Records
---
Amino acid sequence: MSVGEKAVNCSALLAAMAVLLLAGPAQAGQPGKSPVKVFILAGQSNMQGQGVTGIRDEFRGKPGTLVAMLADPAKAALIKHLRNNKGEWVERDDVWVYDINEFGTRKGNLAFGFGWNLGDQTWFGPELQFGHVVKGRLANQVLIIKTAWGGRALYTDFRPPSSGGTVGPYYKLMLATVKQVLADIKKEFPNYNGGGYELAGFVWWHGWNDFCDPPTAVPQYEQNLVNLIKDVRRDLQAPKLPVVIGEFTGPWGADCKEPAAVAIRQAQAAAAARPEFKGSVTFVETHDYVRTEQDSPTGEGYHEFKNGETYFLIGDAFGKAMLKLLK
């Protein structure tokens, strides 16, 4: 080999190495099959996720956390799938999450840290067990897009176009976020194989801010919720999109008999029972999953006392309800 040929080969080798360095580490590939099954989880602060994991010092030893459940033989079996054989908390790369709230955005594999304080492993929401449940029955890659902002009313903030008046800014932002993520899944999740996606379901868990406005918002909640479902389906071009409506637990737990809270619950159940929604919309009761303040990490009744068991069980119920709709 001549000196010139050696020089050419060295240059080619260096160029190839440069390409590899710029490309970064090789991608592992999409674990689940295509099309990607996309689920939208929407609502306000409860849907954001106020459940406590118990892995931080602040809540160490407190009741009503996932860590406390693991220490209870009667409950440990419920969440054993959240830890691997090494005792590490599981991160699922076959379930992706894109999360937006008033504090920013976060994306990645399903794990802790998609609660209200994005990235903080202290918190989780319904997305955690929901993701485990639906993926347990689907061979497809799952993508959860969670759009939840604290303190937002359906009557104003999420107001759907069909309700008339000013369309809610968070209705617009919810739809814009979903469309943005789906327009370029590869950008948001580099392991996406380009095999397409399918809008698979919508979960709505909400009620607090409308409950706080009994004279105006409460009487209109049922119709506004019906309009929300129809408008989301229309605007996402998914006319049969399965919808799960999570019951508003009330501001002080399962025993709340406040008239406005009862009215919101009844409105949610009535919306799901509309004849035009038969077989595609379901109402999930959540009040039995709310624990007492004494059995919880905090006294925030409006956030189900931040009880991790509550949030785990509600996510589980949402996932099972969604699978029934998907048949």
Note: The two ends are 67 Å apart (CA to CA).
---
Amino acid sequence: MKQKSFDIDMVYRLKVTLKGSKPPIWRRIEVPGNITLAKLHRILQVAMGWYGHHLHSFKIGEIYYEEPDPFFDQELSMVEKKDERRFKLQQVAPREKMKFLYEYDFGDGWEHEILVEKILPMTEENRQPRCLKGVKACPPEDIGGIWGYYDFLEVMDDPKHPEHEDMMEWIGGHFDPEEFDLEEVNRQLRKIR
């Protein structure tokens, strides 16, 4: 696939899939190609349903893009790290069908595969970030990664499980793993500047 020219504003259609989720938990979003990876992080948080309470990084090729950490000495790092605020999506993912990783919460290890499905000309309709479609609810924060999430679902499905009541209280009384509110996601995305 040939590289697109960036002399005009382009929009990226991305498919974001939570790795290890079966059946898959995913979102299809459109974002301007000229946004920084830092802004893409904020968009992904809203689209997936995360709250942004944890560290994150993008891995594109062999390079990690993340928010700089003044307490971590770059010299000690075994991998190349770059400041996500200084790189635009169109710089690091210039072609359709490219894939890269977005990891959120290094403790729980939520890895998302991001596929550049299409690079389109910007129009009035697609100039703002938007979610076109999504499948399934995002797992709750701090649940222990994908395996902790599956354990959580098992407990929630069994009212006789000894942890069921505690989990119901912890989650706020309701969790539907099938629920995805496209309208609410887009309402939240419109607030991102």
Note: The chain has a mean pLDDT of 92.
